[in-house]
Design goal:
The chain has 284 residues and is of the alpha/beta class. The protein contains 13 helices and 7 strands.
Length: 284
């Protein structure tokens, strides 16, 4: 877990403890407050110690139970302040993948320029429906989430309409490893590579492929997206990070520009994609 995230969660816990100790009518012990809320008393101490993330309803109930309902909005705003940056997959995927895709669609729709780097998969904006379906199924298996695969695929395909709107520009970098990763059946990957090759030459897409044999000035680590040079969205195994402070965005832009120096474009990118495709279907 991120240190910044944990510090923010601990700070919220300190505030909750302050409210318990200054409860209307006199300070409350942890067990007394838990009894009012109908919670196990361990939950009170976990929230105060920053060892558990509160839900918004937990915070509203806490404010009411300690006799300070006017602090509910403050507590919820504090929670949203750090959860807006680190969005756990457990919470996001509770209702399936479609809501996450809809949130992405809204963010992308507001953007004019996207910079993306993917090291293990083809970027979502350039995926075929069958490839996207395989990806969603893999993650549903991993996290044990609601299987709304078809709805999630439709939402991701809807996002691709962005590519056909004037004044938009997708600058995509893909590490060659993503062209070989069998996260789907080989026949699906063949069609995906054909789709990827077909985007070369589109006026809204600049596709660079980083060959495995290229010299890298920085490691090809986790993938990320930069929207209008104002917002970074990066994925980790536990959460999706939405980062909007200027210093962080600047760091990711430098990483993207550094990786770009190792990429090939145009006919050279077509050759790398074609080589990967022939490895899957030697007769093609």
């Amino acid at each position: 877990m991120s240190t910044d995230y944990q510090h923010a969660r601990e700070a919220l816990g300190v505030r909750l403890r302050e409210l318990r100790l200054s409860a209307a009518g006199g300070r409350l012990t942890g067990p007394q407050l838990a009894a009012r809320l109908g919670w196990p008393h361990s939950k009170v101490y976990k929230l105060e110690g920053g060892r558990q993330t509160a839900a918004a309803d937990d915070l509203r109930a806490w404010a009411t139970a300690v006799g300070h309902p006017d602090t509910a909005a403050e507590l919820v705003a504090q929670l949203q302040g750090f959860e807006s940056h680190i969005r756990s997959w457990r919470r996001q995927l509770a209702a399936g993948h479609r809501p996450v895709q809809d949130t992405w669609n809204a963010a992308v729709d507001r953007a004019r320029t996207l910079h993306v780097f993917e090291e293990a998969v083809v970027p979502g904006m350039l995926q075929t429906a069958d490839y996207a379906r395989a990806i969603f199924q893999r993650y549903a298996d991993l996290y044990g989430t609601t299987r709304d695969t078809d709805a999630a695929v439709r939402s991701r395909m809807e996002r691709q309409a962005w590519l056909y709107q004037g004044g938009r520009r997708l600058h995509a970098l893909v590490w060659e490893a993503a062209l070989h990763a069998l996260v789907c059946p080989p026949s699906v990957l063949v069609a995906q590579l054909d789709r990827l090759a077909g985007t070369i030459g589109m006026d809204t897409v600049e596709l660079g492929v980083i060959p495995l044999a290229s010299s890298l000035r920085v490691p090809a680590a986790n993938g990320f997206w930069i929207l209008d040079e104002q917002l970074v969205i990066a994925e980790d195994w536990h959460a999706e990070l939405w980062l909007d402070d200027a210093e962080t965005v600047g760091s990711y832009l430098r990483v993207w520009e550094t990786l770009r120096q190792s990429a090939v474009y145009g006919a050279d990118a077509q050759n790398v994609i074609g080589r990967a495709r022939r490895g899957l279907n030697p007769r093609a």
